[in-house]
Amino acid sequence: MTLSEEDYIKAIYHLGKGKNTSVSTNAVAEQMKTKPSSVTDMIKKLSEKGLVNYKKYQGVRLSESGERTALSIVRKHRLWEVFLVDKLDFAWDEVHDVAEQLEHIKSEKLIDKLDQLLGFPKVDPHGDPIPSKEGLFNKASKHLLNEVSLGTSGLCIGVKDSSAPFLKFLDKNRIALGDTIKVIDKEEFDDSLLIEINERQFRISQQIASNLFIQIS
Amino acid sequence: MTLSEEDYIKAIYHLGKGKNTSVSTNAVAEQMKTKPSSVTDMIKKLSEKGLVNYKKYQGVRLSESGERTALSIVRKHRLWEVFLVDKLDFAWDEVHDVAEQLEHIKSEKLIDKLDQLLGFPKVDPHGDPIPSKEGLFNKASKHLLNEVSLGTSGLCIGVKDSSAPFLKFLDKNRIALGDTIKVIDKEEFDDSLLIEINERQFRISQQIASNLFIQIS
DNA sequence: ATAAAATTTTAGACAAAACTAAATATTAGT
DNA sequence: ACTAATATTTAGTTTTGTCTAAAATTTTAT
Question: Does domain A3-62 have CATH number 3.40.50.300?
């Protein structure tokens, strides 16, 4: 597997996850910041290698083996993120680009030992689950904050958007994974929420709420 | 810098280090396991970028900036080796290939933090010095075991050949860095040595001796 | 000193992964 | 159902790093 092939597999995985449908050429092109024609070329190659199922004009879908490959890359990415935060004191908004490079390192032993060093973590610094070696997830039930009913409280366990600007916003507002969040009130006009975290009450917009996962107590 | 450019810079560095002379195209080709014509092409590119000094038919030599680049790669390689051995329990004969990949990861912060995590080591698991961020070495005086005079004793501080077979041989014979070695006798016929390590006396060939560095007490 | 041998460079090609422009297929709007 | 708009693929180039074969230069050996 070349670096580029791995990037495509990961892109197709992320675009297709959840939905049970195939991924369009254009969507992959946008994700990969490349042109649709380049995507077609690469998809053909991946298809010949049996990593994706592809019929002209019908989009792509990962095959069994493509899925395994994707999960192994995601596993590596997330373990490296944990390493960067737990062992090297990176902030959670600084890890993405480095993990993006580290995920391509080829050594099964390296990843097994890293997993061990980190104490077999189940989630990465953004609360995303780390697939096991066998490609299995912790399917913990989690809810977007903007979708839970008024009065609900729960543990903040993850973010949907893990871009640096959003994570920095959370830091600035002292919202961290592990905090208990309670939804006090909802404003009908703009769907903003009044929430309580550690005795503090404040208002967050719908955009913020729709990117925070909580586990309902 | 592409991956390939970095590999060439490193190869030229290793071939030229010590000697104060330029490196031949053929030598680089052999080291890189590629053809001389490919080397010529790459050298031209590196020369345009100011990383090497090159005149047709006269071999190459790293420029100031090429040297800095090489040292930064060597620093990364050796720090990762320490990480693999100290933190992930790799054996010293298993680290090379993985470090070869890790050395290309681009993040200054990553390397600084790694250095800190490891306690600012001065040498890698094979006893090779780790350049500082500024590209400075610990120029500890070390001697090849086959070159010291009879009766000399000292600390085993490094290996010249760090290939897996040689390192495995040392493990099997319970010779490790940090051991005190004394040269008891030398056989004129084949230049083999009778040495003493931890009360044990045994004979090693000239080939072995010429790949062990000691620091004379 | 010069011919033979070895080394190095040039020229021309190829594979991977990207691109642009043009052609083709699908989807959507009326 | 048919046309317009959109999405996708094809064809033909480009760039990077490699290769082979041939030409040029340097070194070695008589």
Answer: no
